Amino acid sequence: MSRPLVRIFLDRLVAALIALCVMVAAIPVLVLLLFVVIKGLPGLLTPGFFTDPPHPQGVPGGGVLNAIIGTLEIVGMASLLAVPIGALIGVFLSEYGRNRLGDTVRFISDVLTGLPSIAFGIFGYTVVVLTTHHFSAISASVALAVLMLPVILRATESALMLVPQALREAGLALGAPSWRVTVEIVVPAALGGIVTGALLAIARAAGETAPLLFTAFGNEIVQSNPLQPMGALALTVFRNALSPYQNLQDQAWAAALLLVLLVASANILARLYVRRIQR
Amino acid sequence: MGKGTAERVAPAPLVATSRQRRLISGDDVFRAVAFAAAALILVVAAALPAIARFGLGFFIGRTWDPVRTQFGALSAIYGTAVTSVIGLLIAFPIGLAAALFLAEESGVRLLRGPLSFAIELLAGIPSVVIGLFAFFILTPLMRDDVDPFLNHTLGFLPLFQGSPSGYGYLTAGLVLAIMVLPIMTALSRDVIRAVPRALREASLALGATNAETIWSVILPYARVGITGAALLSLGRALGETIAVTMVIGNRNEISASLFASGYTLPSVIANEFTEAVGNVYLGSLFYLGLVLVLITIAVNVLARLLVWRFTGSEPMAT
Description:
- The complex is a heterodimer of chains A (279) and B (318).
- Chain A has helices spanning 3-45, 65-96, 100-114, 117-132, 137-161, 165-173, 178-189, 191-206, 233-241, 246-278.
- Chain A is mainly alpha-helical.
- Chain A has a single domain, classed as MetI-like (MetI-like fold, Orthogonal Bundle).
- In chain A, helix 2 (65-96) packs parallel to helix 5.
- Chain A is globular.
- Chain B has one domain: MetI-like (MetI-like fold).
- In chain B, strand 1 (64-65) and strand 2 form a beta hairpin.
- The longest helix of chain B is centred in the first third of the chain and has 36 residues, at 19-54.
- Chain B is mainly α and 318 residues long.
- Chain B contains eleven helices and two strands; from the N terminus they run ααββααααααααα.
- The interface between A and B is large, with 95 and 96 residues.
């Protein structure tokens, strides 16, 4: 007699447990963002934060100009490397990649996606730093470019796959050779997807720290020469957080807020782009 | 261009008549592949001094002494395993429950959008920012409240003995749980959505409650895919570097207590790479890197095979 009651009770219990877990899952992100905003905002609004280089340890004040320039330059160079190559590989996979070579490339790109980010740092170190004998921004860009590659090429491939087959056939029927169909019809039609993939890759690369530790290395001086060690926002957050000085720790929070804003805006831009295309 | 495989996937490819075009893209691909292979060989070459010196004994050696150039990886491997397991133990049930909620067709529709958004947001937060939060907010909380409470209630277990400093395996595991949660949730959601609707409806039509349907229809059917999702999460946890480095305590020791400081494979590399002098020291770090890369590749390949076999498509969440 009591069984239906037990079953109903169990059902409610499971529903409640699931709801509880859902709340627990949502809490960390809210708390984390709250803290980053509250602790980072005062530092972000301090005059000189965007325009001054860091002061020596223990001297109050100073900004993160070196890191802002560094992040922009390192990620910019990485994008210049990764976006064209990644997009080309994506085009290959979608248009000519239904074979053993294509499958191999897909598999390797999946493996790259799963590799820990510090592995890309080791890559940049062995390939560029060891051969040029010193830390440099360009070695960080190379490491980040390899990290970005799988994101861009998979996004490009799926964007190109969504282009209707009829468009390709129409182009061919007009007598265009298949490379012109690819370059002038398929790629422009899929451009939105490619841009989205590039933006997502940039968002991921901008927030990475581990690949920069022994490639860009960090630099307290404002540096724009790609062959020299360079600071980056993520490195500033990491190093300043571990320093014993209160003003540097505050700066770490402010740099973290800036980094989150940067990454979030790239993500939101990508999402808006997707939405515009889907319409 | 294998003709036999050409029809397999929906948009049938063009017949590549332009050999020129094929050469250009093929070249790029080949360059990337060759580059990656070359890099792996370079890493092996760089690790050679350590491999030659320590061989497989590297994996059971517990000393890490740069002064006497004695290196063993056991405590780092132990730390990586312990923190990843803690992270997965926490993230697995929560992520699975959140996925059930997100994939559910009835239920509270109002909450689903914000929750998906929150989890995507969490996936996009840089790991150094999570590390910063853990270092300043989570560590004191663990030291003053959570660890003493665990010690008080479960202190009879060796796991929860010793004096808590806030840094150590437990805090690092908690950080990993936070970082792995979005992946676990997103992948399990896709897997659960791939369970045929008819099965779920048949179960409900037979009079089973929602909970019974989940327990005896959805979960058994999705078991393989969920295992894959958990493995992919594990792969991510194994390689997470910066956030863990900030809270693990960075001590080359093996302790039964979860309150104790330790080391993980990536955090050793992150901490010591720039100060490593000498071929053997640097080689040992490369050796650690090699071990880490091979483990994560193995876990990932296995996971992808499982998820892929289940949903019939590539897991896109990364």
